[in-house]
Amino acid sequence: MNTPTVADDPRPILIKVFRFIEKLRELFPDVPMQTISIFLIIAMKPGISQRELLKLMGTSQAGVSRNVMALGDVNRHGKPGLGLIAQLRDPFDARQVGLRLTPAGIALANRVAALGQAHDGGII
Fold first, then answer.
1. Rounded distance, CA 34 to CA 38, Å?
2. pLDDT tens, 4-41?
3. The 3-state secondary structure of 74-123, one letter per residue
4. What does the alpha-carbon distance between residue 81 and residue 43 come to, in Å, rounded to a whole number?
5. Distance of alpha carbon 93 from its chain centroid, rounded?
6. CA torsion angle for 13, 17, 19, 24 (degrees, to 10)?
7. In this predicted structure, what is the pLDDT of residue 18?
8. What's the rounded Cα separation, in Å, for the pair 123 and 115?
9. What does pTM read for this prediction?
10. For residue 103, with 0-12 CB atoms within 10 Å meaning exposed, 13-18 middle and 19 or more buried, which class applies?
């Protein structure tokens, strides 16, 4: 007897993914998925530049800048941002800005990682 694969019935995997996304939505209420993706990339690649982030995301410069500002201290409207990332200028090239998590960002990334580990033995 063959073991069923995702192609045979993708529902069990899709249910796990859906539940994980719903948990992410609890942690990030009202935050667009693109902003969450950028946060997770910065968490996985501390010090990444906006230029590198732009290449990885495959989105517009304006979209990356908007999301980086939303995750920072002040959003594009001059209102308080989420305070999850900090922008650090490269001391050797002022045009380069590295993106890192703040202590609040690190704490949230740890919660997301714990959620992924605890959620039904992992995401998939």
1. 6
2. 566 788 888 888 888 888 888 888 888 898 999 999 99
3. ECCCCCECCCCEEEEEECCEEEEEEEEECHHHHHHHHHHHHHHHHHHHCC
4. 17
5. 26
6. 170
7. 86
8. 9
9. 0.79
10. exposed
Q: Cα torsion at 21, 106, 92, 67 (round to 10°)? A: 30
The 3-state DSSP composition of the chain as helix, strand, coil percent (nearest 5) reads: 55, 15, 30
Q: Are strands 93-101 and 48-49 parallel, antiparallel or unpaired?
A: antiparallel
Q: What is the distance between the alpha carbons of residues 109 and 85, in angstroms, rounded to a whole number?
A: 11
Write down the pLDDT at residue 39.
Answer: 94
Report the C-alpha gap between 52 and 11 in whole angstroms.
35
117 vs 124: CA distance, rounded Å? 10
What are the angstrom distances between the C-alpha of 65 and each of 45, 54, 71, 99? 17, 9, 10, 12
- Residue 99's nearest CA partner among 109, 111, 77, 27 is 109
For the stretch 72-120, pLDDT in tens is: 999 889 999 999 999 998 888 888 889 999 999 999 899 888 877 765 5
